[in-house]
């Protein structure tokens, strides 16, 4: 009998151990989902639309609670509720992650340059906000390769975007490649209530709110509900010129100067 009891105890112990492992794994998954949904989430920068502020290969930290929570704050965007919970309006000059207006499964990152009621216009390659030219200062010539290995060659500026809600102006860098084309001579846009106007800091290589049509790359005004969070910092950055499996290149491809680099 004693031998039978001992033999019968082993499966029970294994089942208990398996149950504990499953519960531990479930708690870990819930904790990760909760942190990514409510606190922060890392995002990779795959394109050059925010050069020179953000570089291709940057991994940014995105604060999920900056603007409150919508369905897009959660994995798979479950349609649990409309609007935003604990929502707060973004500030002009914020670099924000949001869902693309034509396909909400895609994340975009741009700078918020217009809030509800703002008048936005590009004239001769210069940005006008509420009828006043946004001041900028030249920082000299700038060249960089984009995600398609195409050379972007132009002028880098420090732009001073007027703050909102009593905040000071936001000084940040932009890249200008040309003053020609539609994106540099636009109609005046008036941002409607419940929306914001987003632009890339690479002003001539960005599909943003200046494009208001129904083309596949047109962003238009962005609903506040589409906001995911604010990007205040670059966690780290990698210049992947070689395939990822060639690990011996990793030390020289890491951009050490961009670790914990603030996004302004």
TrEMBL record:
SUPFAM superfamilies: LexA/Signal peptidase. It holds the Pfam family Peptidase_S26. Keywords: Hydrolase, Membrane, Protease, Transmembrane, Transmembrane helix. The chain crosses the membrane at residues 21-40. It comes from the Bacteria. It is a single-pass type II membrane protein. It catalyses: Cleavage of hydrophobic, N-terminal signal or leader sequences from secreted and periplasmic proteins. Its EC number is 3.4.21.89. Residues 20-235 form the Peptidase S26 domain. It is found in: Membrane. Belongs to the peptidase S26 family. NCBIfam families: sigpep_I_bact (TIGR02227). This is Signal peptidase I. It comes from Gluconobacter japonicus. The lineage of its organism: Bacteria, Pseudomonadati, Pseudomonadota, Alphaproteobacteria, Acetobacterales.
């Amino acid at each position: 009998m004693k031998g039978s009891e001992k033999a019968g105890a082993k499966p029970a112990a294994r089942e208990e151990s398996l149950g504990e492992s499953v519960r531990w794994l479930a708690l870990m998954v819930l904790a990760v989902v909760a942190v990514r949904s409510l606190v922060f989430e890392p995002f990779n920068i795959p394109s050059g639309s925010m050069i020179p502020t953000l570089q291709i290969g940057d991994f940014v930290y995105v604060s999920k609670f900056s603007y409150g929570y919508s369905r897009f704050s959660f994995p798979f965007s479950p349609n649990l509720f409309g609007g935003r919970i604990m929502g707060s309006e973004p500030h002009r000059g914020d670099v924000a992650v949001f869902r693309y207006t034509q396909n909400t499964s895609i994340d975009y990152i741009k700078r918020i340059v217009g809030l509800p009621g703002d008048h936005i216009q590009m004239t001769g390659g210069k940005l006008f906000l509420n009828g006043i030219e946004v001041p900028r200062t030249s920082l000299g010539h700038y060249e960089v390769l984009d995600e398609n290995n195409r050379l972007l060659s132009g002028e880098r500026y420090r732009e001073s975007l007027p703050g909102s809600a009593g905040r000071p102006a936001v000084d940040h860098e932009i890249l200008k490649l040309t003053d020609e084309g539609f994106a540099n001579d636009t109609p005046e846009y008036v941002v409607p209530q419940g929306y914001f106007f987003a632009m890339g800091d690479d002003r001539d290589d960005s599909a943003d709110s200046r494009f208001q049509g129904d083309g596949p790359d047109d962003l238009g005004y962005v609903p506040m509900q589409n906001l995911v969070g604010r990007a205040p910092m670059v966690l780290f950055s990698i210049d992947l010129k070689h395939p990822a499996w060639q690990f011996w290149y990793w030390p020289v491809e890491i951009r050490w100067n961009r670790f914990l680099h603030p996004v302004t």
